[in-house]
Amino acid sequence: MIAAGLAKRYAKALEAAAAEADALEAVGTELERVATLWHQDPAMAAFFGNPGILLRDKAETLKSLSQRMALAPLVARFLDLLLSRRRMQALPAMARLYRDLMNKRLGRIQAAVTTAVPLAPDLQEGLRRQLAQVLGGTVFLEPRVDPAILGGIVVQVDSTVYDGSLRTQLKQLRERLLRE
Hints:
Layout: H1 4-20, H2 24-40, H3 42-49, H4 55-68, H5 73-84, H6 91-105, E1 108-115, H7 121-135, E2 138-145, E3 152-157, E4 160-165, H8 166-179
Parallel strand pairs: 1-2
Antiparallel strand pairs: 1-3, 3-4
């Protein structure tokens, strides 16, 4: 597996090329399709990661895959580059990094929202609007349900966590009582 920094450089290069071609969304969608296939078919990852298989055979398989998936030339060339540089194993990480870079360029903010019970659509929309106002961008919610938080809400944006869960409040109260 290649280092995270190297994977990020590849993702940045693809993001810059896609922006120049005015194809950020299309490239992102296609890259996600390939990464999803990678996750769903472990044999594919094993095939491209197997050093015993000739590069020529891998290239033919990749070309066939690109044609069957009707991938844009930019994405197909990117995959060819990864194959020739023996970096295919990092494709899923590069797809995630690309999505993050694309969202940043487009002013999108991904927020993971965890609640004890599913939020009603009108509450989700209200929360999305409030977060957009506070964070200054277009917010996309990723709702999650975790009964262990008991109540309240936990919002994670990048590496920042806003924890307003009942579980955390009870834990803090307990710690305060134990100190006194």
